[in-house]
Structure formats: C-alpha cells, structure tokens
Design brief:
The chain is mainly α. The chain is about 60% helix and about 0% strand.
Length: about 180
C-alpha cells in the first residue's frame, strides 16, 4: 500500500527539502487516502524494533512532523494534538513530555503579543532542557523529525528487519534444498 513511499519517508530525518515539498507530501498522503491511524512501519512493511521513534509513528504523527518541517505551525498544532490524543498511551515518558512541550510552544507561537523567550526558564523547569531544546528545534524547522533516525535503502538501522530478512533467506534455501531432492 505505501511501499512506493518507503524511500521518501525513511529519508525524511536527514532531508533538507524546500518547505513546500514537505507540505506537498502531506497532501499526497491525503490524496492517496492513507489512514492517519496507520502505523508507518506497517504501511512501509518494516520491522523497526521497539527501541526507536519509528515503532510508534503513525501517519498522523508524521503529518505533524511534515507540517513543522514545512513551517505550517497551525497544521502542526492540529496534528500534534491529534498525536497526543491517539498515541499518548504508547509513548515513552520522554516522548510524551516532548509532545506536551511542543504543544505548549505551538500554542504560544500563535499569540503574537507573547515572546517564547520570556518563558524559557519556566519551560525548562516544567519540561526539562532536553525537551525544550528538541521542541524548539522542531518548531523552527531545524529538526522536526523527533526520535527518527535516517535510514538507508539497506535498512541497516533496523536490526529486527535484518533478522527477519535473514530468517526468510534461510527458509528459502531450505525450501530450495527440499524441492531439489
């Protein structure tokens, strides 16, 4: 279903596209009718393992990240709130804290009379310096793909996927040996 998007989506964390291209990918996913609740790993046919952001990533959360990369903060807020509502139960405490911080910064960005810097110390006390730094980098579009590592076409970043491929190859060799008798 989404195999044609695999290389594009897996390359996002290391990408430096024009802002419009990130927003166009959201539109493409909508045009293709991708369900926002679908786990990206299942859409792309990957075994990611549980120790990374790709494991819980859903299409809706990816849209939040793409909106951040594209500089559309209103859309980013909508998808961030969606993500918090529908993914919070599967997030690590660290990831949930990041999204709470990101939501706060996105809400603050919509209030022209307020400057985020005046709240920096309070945010650091509430969310911790790491979360504030990561959410600020996402908000600026500098690092919008929180918790996702870039993945090459050989999928070496996913040991679980590599293990499945090795098991599949072993099975195919056994089948070939059996039928060769």
């Amino acid at each position: 279903m989404g195999a044609h998007l695999r290389d594009t989506i897996l390359s996002l964390p290391g990408s430096e596209w024009d802002k419009e291209d990130y927003l166009a990918l959201i539109e493409q996913m909508d045009d293709e009718g991708l369900d926002d609740f679908t786990r990206v790993r299942e859409l792309l046919g990957l075994a990611t393992g549980k120790d990374n952001g790709w494991y819980t990533l859903r299409v809706g959360e990816l849209k939040a990240m793409l909106a951040l990369a594209g500089g559309d903060l209103e859309q980013a807020l909508i998808w961030t709130e969606w993500t918090m509502e529908f993914n919070a139960s599967v997030f690590s405490a660290e990831r949930a804290n990041y999204y709470r911080c990101l939501q706060t910064l996105l809400l603050l960005s919509q209030e022209e009379e307020r400057q985020p810097l005046q709240y920096l110390n309070a945010f650091i006390r509430m969310y911790g310096a790491d979360a504030v730094e990561a959410a600020s980098a996402a908000l600026s579009g500098e690092a919008p793909f929180y918790g996702l590592q870039a993945v090459d076409s050989d999928l070496q970043a996913f040991p679980a996927h590599q293990s499945l491929l090795k098991a599949y190859e072993k099975l195919q060799r056994a089948k070939a040996a059996f039928w060769a008798k």
